[in-house]
Structures are given as structure tokens and as C-alpha cells.
What does this fold into?
Amino acid sequence: MIDRARLEAQFAHMRGISAPGEGGPGIYRLAFTDADWQGRTYLMRLMQEAGLALREDAFGNVIGRMEGTDPALPVVLFGSHADSVPGGGNFDGVLGILAAIETARSLNEDGFRPEHPLEVVLFLCEESSRFGAATLGSRAMLGELTVEEAHRYRDKDGISLYKAMTARGLEPEALGKPLHPGPVKAFFEVHIEQGKVLEHEGKEIGLVTGIAAPTRFRVRLTGSADHSGATPMALRHDAACAAAEIVLAAEVLAQAENDPPAVATVGMLQIEPGVMNVIPGTATLGVDIRSIDDDVKARVAKRLQRRVREIGERRGVAVDIEPISDERPVAISPKVLDFLEEIARESGCSYRRMPSGAGHDAMHWAERVPAGMLFIPCKDGLSHNPNESAKMEDILTVTRLLEKAVRRASRKDTRLE
Ligand SMILES: [Zn+2]
It folds into this structure.
């Protein structure tokens, strides 16, 4: 049975594992640091107590296995990460790995014998905070992370991922080939929502329909930096006014998409010369557009860029659009979604289908194997924040759902493809 007191004690323990931060509150458990390793050691102990057979891969990812009655069958894999951002909270990642270990422990205590082997996985280096790139443990397991990248990614002190791995006795030279032997029947990850939707709607569970990925571009507007007193309104080429129109156009165009939704943000806006008595001559905007549907995202980006050109033309402001990135969103298979929805419905909890706006380890698995994610609300939608918080009732609910999902997926007669 899923044990509340055990989970409470484990969350409390993880909260205490943190490097002294730069004076700020919150958890500092950056990938491959001493604090991260201390957390990893603790979680390995929990996996052992759960009756799992442990192994580590060349990247340092930890896998705890419960053998299936037929060891040759594809594995049911579930877990998450335990590294944090600087000044992070106690639930991002931690929820997923503790729920996974508790699930295994509960199954073991029940004397459950899965047909397919079960593997709990602790992914390393999910956060991009230290090396500027995210979900490296998953990418390494799937053979998508190269030795060359390990040399290239560096932290703020200039230490490369390669060096950080070597210092931990790991094998960066093994990167580039899959570290997980496979095959994998299904992958499940539990996570806090990191947004406000579930809390706002009073739902206990979010069934993730897909994981959004950003399209980003920079817009540079060049007008004319004239005297703010001597230039009549009709003779201006004000880059800030053009920028303001673009910000609102991004909002309107994203709002027009509902099925599935899109979000667009101008999170960066610089105006020059930035003095009160000069009309802004240039403006630079950073645009970030996301959706779980590639076509929807591409449509918003295309329409917005067309609007940017129209606005520039009308105002006599020169426009330069520079693409930054265009990542592919990941869809969750309808079969896995239905599978998880059935379990949620049977359990009598309140739920909704929803996209994930943030990236997760699950997105790499979802591209290759049947994969699903379950969200729970977090207080005020806060994440990557010392005040990150989730209710124990919701943690228990989602852990019970995970246990059911794993139990059912481990049967030979459950087809998820
Ligand atoms: Zn996370």
C-alpha cells in the first residue's frame, strides 16, 4: 500500500539535501554537485529498501529493477529527476522519483509479481541550470547525447560536462550510443504542473496530452531616433510604437488558437536610445511561441511574422526577423492517454487533459515508446521557486494512480501500442 508517513519523511529528508546557496532560500542541488550526489545516494538507498536491484549507467542515471516473470519482455519504465535549479523547490522532479520508488515498494510489499520487468529510473541532469542544456540524462540513455556535446557544455566556472562526469567516476566516452538496453514497453512520469490550471479549476490530476516546445525569434525594428519635442506625430517612425503593436498582435494571435491552444510571449523588449526626450529609434523583441501541435505553433509564428512586416511597412520602420530556435512538440499517444484516463476515472479522482508547457524527461521517451505523464497541482502555480508546494493528498492520489498504471502495464495482455 502507498504509505503516507513514508512519503512525508522522504520529502522532508530531500528538503534537507542542498548546497549552501548564494545567500538565497530554496534548494541548490545542481547536477553532479556534492548535494546532487548526496540526494542520489539517498534515493539509491530508498530503491534498495524497495527491493529493487540497482544498476548505474555510464552517465550516472540510476535504474532499480523488479524482475518480471518473463525477464525477456520489454520493460515498464517510470521515474523522474532529483537535480534542482538554484533556489529551487522540493517537488519538481522529487515528486516523480519518490512516487516511482513508493510505487515499487508498495508492489513489492504486496508480493506483486509483474510479467514485464519494472524499472524505476532516476535521471541525472534534467535541469539546464548548470550546463545550459536540459534533460541530459534521458538524452544520454537514448544515445542522443554525444561526447562532443559533453566537452562543449560548460558551467559558469568553465567546468565541462565531460570533466564533471569524469570527476564522479562516470564514462563520458560511452556517450553517443544508447545506454539503456531496451526494449521499453511504456514510460510513465509524475510531475507537478508548474502552472496554475489545475489549481484554478480545482482538479486533482492533469493527464498530459503533449509536451509543448518553443519556436523563438528575435525582431529588430529600426525607425528614426528624432527629437521628442520637435517631431510632429505624423512624421515619426517610432520603433517602440511598432513594438507595442507587435506585443499585442502576439497576444491576439495566440488567443485565437484553442484546439489545441497556443501561447505567445514577448518576454524581452529593449528600446534605444532609452531617453525621455528622444523618439525610440530601435527596438528589439524576443518572441517565444509554444503549442503541443506543430501546425498550430507554425501558424501563429507565420501570422505574427506577417503582422510584424505589415506594422513595419505602415510605420516606416525597418524590420529584421532572426530565427533563434524551432523545436518540435511531442504528442502523447492517444492509447496511453486513454489508458491513464481510464485509471483516473476508475479511481474517482477529478482530472482534465492538458498540455505541458514545460519540457520533461518524458518528451524524449514519448518520441520512441508509449509514454504518459500525470500532473498534480502546485500552490499558486509556483515552480523553480523556494515556495514551490504540493498537497500530500494530491501526492498520494497521483502515486496511487501511478501504481495502478504500472501494475496494469506490466501485464502481458495490456497493449499500449
Ligand atoms: Zn522537472
